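A common beginner's mistake is to predict each chain separately and then try to dock the pieces by hand. The better habit, illustrated here, is to supply every component at once so that their relative placement is modeled jointly.
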Amino acid sequence: VTCAEFKESAAAYALGILPAQEERELEEHLSESIAHQGCHAVLESALRTTAALSAAVPPVQPPDTAWEAIESRLNLGQTGSRPRDQPRLPWLIGFAAAAVCLLAVIQALNYRRALTEQNAQLAQLSAAEAERERCAQELQALKNSTELQRAALALLELPSTQLVPLGAPQGVRTASRGTALFNSEQQKAIVLISALAPAVGKDYELWVIREGENPTPAGVFKPGPDGKAITQVDPRVLQAGPPGVFAVTLEPEGGSPAPTTLPFLVGSVRKT
Amino acid sequence: LGTRPDAEEVLQETFLEVWKRVRDYDERRGSLEAWVVTIARSRSIDRLRARGTAAKIAEAAPGLPFPDSGPPPIEAAEQRQQRERVQAALNSIPAEQRSVLELAYFEGLSQSEIAKRMGDPLGTVKTRIRLGMEKLAGMLEDAEGTR
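With all components supplied together, the output reads:
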């Protein structure tokens, strides 16, 4: 097999549709210590393209029992790790948050009893109340986030939903990236962003920009501890007319009526 | 494959094979994900052939009959964007090249089988596969670069 012949057949090799004998001959050629004429690069490109083809069909989440069945067939028992635990994660986070809150409340109550014995009831009552309030806020945030995630997934399921990639405009460097899920029929948009820096004392703000108009504020948000954010574009802004561009800026806490910084993420809505 | 039990069985077989053949994995030949996907695809094709049906995965896939709880929204959005990029790239190459790639990738037909199915000379099929893959690679790399 020559380098030219190898490159002719690399695509079929990557697709795995060659007879075994031909496959072996190509592999032997590849392992030859000669000055190859781009054989490796051509094969790598073909393998990448073949792998990308798998994305042409929608993914399907396997049930939790699938991994257990694999472990059982491998005789791993319960000692193997569980790489497909993701679907349980929101529940685990919920339970973990609830457990932490419960422990915190119990601790606060114990503390209160101790303080009562020392005639300091008032101070510890206030601490327990603050703790309860904090827990309530955390649980509420978790609930809101779960509801938004559900709404985002529902929107994603609709074929009429346009996915607007949000990226850095020219001259701006950021690790953040995002996607706006926009459905014009439902006049609904949810923005998903990852790799956001923590916004201490500030808020991120969403903007809807229409041609010839000033940016319209469309909601403020903070990222989670994982740097991810899911937020809904203010429906009133979408009801006012179709958006041209979605943009995100960093603003003083509470947001601004007009952007005070340059957007670090922008995405243009495709006209339909 | 079109049915959940078949898909789950292939999933198990894929991981068993990954476990048994992990020493065969050569990172110079592509990413680990690509290797695992290749195994899954081969096992799917084996199952399709064993079932004696020529059902096209590509035709069955859009209407998969079981619900999908799916990954979190950010990952789901990225997957859908990637799917749209691949579908757009597939739709933009000439129809005869797309057909041979679909028969090769989704049905696992050999070049000779594709030639027989389409009634074209083997050489023509080989050329279409090579050109189709080259065009797809170019378009997907361009799309990746503009993200």
